[in-house]
Amino acid sequence: MEYIIIGFLWLSILLYLVLGGADFGAGIIELFTSKRHRYRTRNTAYHAIGPIWEANHMWLIIAVVILFVGFPVIYSTMSVYLHIPLVAMLLGITARGTAFVFRNYDAVIDNMQRVYNRIFLISSFITPLFLGMIAGGVIAGKINPDTNDFLTAYVWPWFNWFSFTIGLFTVALCGFLASVYLIGEAPSGDDRNSFIRKAKQWNVIAVFCGALVFIASLVESIPLMQWIFGNPVGATAVIAASISLLVLWLLINKGKTVVPRILAGFQASMILLAVSYAHFPNFVILSNGQHLSLFEHQAPAATMTALAWALIIGSLFILPSLFYLYYSFQKDRHKGSFVEH
């Protein structure tokens, strides 16, 4: 049963990165679009994410519930020592969702729309930034459970160059995912070419930020290079991601839109696999050389069995409904527009 639960945990993190990442990325590319073209980008993104933006957070909720119920020691450690970036990320999610609703569905159109727009754009950037910094804090080996110093306990585990560069890479990856996805949603040829240019730009930015992650890992003596390239699975994942990127651009240049979306998600999955495989089943790396393991730090067997069955049975009800939601809005996407500001 533990492998079923771990599988659901890994899949929920991946789907939140891919689907939620593309959702955040829509706001990120709008943030960095010139004011002259921002309305068109916003309108296209709205029709793409408007119907399903709230559903993407389901994957984060599933991951949190799995950690809380199945791996309470890991959950409590992250909640305590990474509570600052966790709160920042949750505030970003809340602010972004609230601003999205009010800027699009507010009955009164006034100057507050500008405020809603700004909150939405900034929180779209901040949320994946802190999500990446949390990931960095989990694997950086800087969580010190033996210290009584506030900064050492609650700030330095995530506020460091390695975690920050992972945060930037996460932001860039979200921008890339959203750009690739929105190519197929563009209502005209000019808009489509615009999103292709954005995808290329965010692709370059993601590669640059990825290089920064490796540089930061060398500076802070984190064996990231060994984790990724020191085993055949990690090396194969990197090669597969690189090849799929070449195929993605070949297909985009030929006017394809559906398969490139799948390949973009595949690249994200390969990145996650390459990083996580090397120290599996360890989930949190501590500064004293110890680890919090998905095998050694799990709930009692009865709890794990109940959780596994709950995930299996729940998925039989939730997943078909979710897929039908995506299918329905893709098949019959209603038309609408923003009020431009």
From TrEMBL:
| Top-level taxon | Bacteria
For this UniProt entry, the molecular function terms from Gene Ontology, in alphabetical order, are: electron transfer activity; oxidoreductase activity, acting on diphenols and related substances as donors, oxygen as acceptor
Residue ranges spanning the membrane: these are 6-32, 58-75, 81-103, 115-141, 161-183, 204-229, 235-252, 264-286, 306-327
The yes or no answer to whether the keyword Lyase is present is: no
GO CC, alphabetical = cytochrome complex; plasma membrane
Q: One Pfam family for this entry, by name?
A: Cyt_bd_oxida_II
Gene Ontology BP terms? aerobic electron transport chain
Keyword annotations from UniProtKB, A to Z? Cell membrane, Membrane, Transmembrane, Transmembrane helix
In terms of InterPro entries, this protein maps to: Cyt-d_oxidase_su2 (IPR003317)
Tell me how this protein sits in the membrane: Multi-pass membrane protein
Localization recorded for this chain is: Cell membrane
Tell me yes or no: is Metal-binding among this UniProt entry's keywords: no
The entry's family comment says: Belongs to the cytochrome ubiquinol oxidase subunit 2 family.
Q: Which PANTHER family match?
A: CYTOCHROME BD2 SUBUNIT II (PTHR43141:SF4)
Q: What is this protein called?
A: Cytochrome d ubiquinol oxidase subunit II
Q: What is the organism field in this record?
A: Mucilaginibacter aquatilis
The opening ranks of the lineage are:
Bacteria, Pseudomonadati, Bacteroidota, Sphingobacteriia, Sphingobacteriales
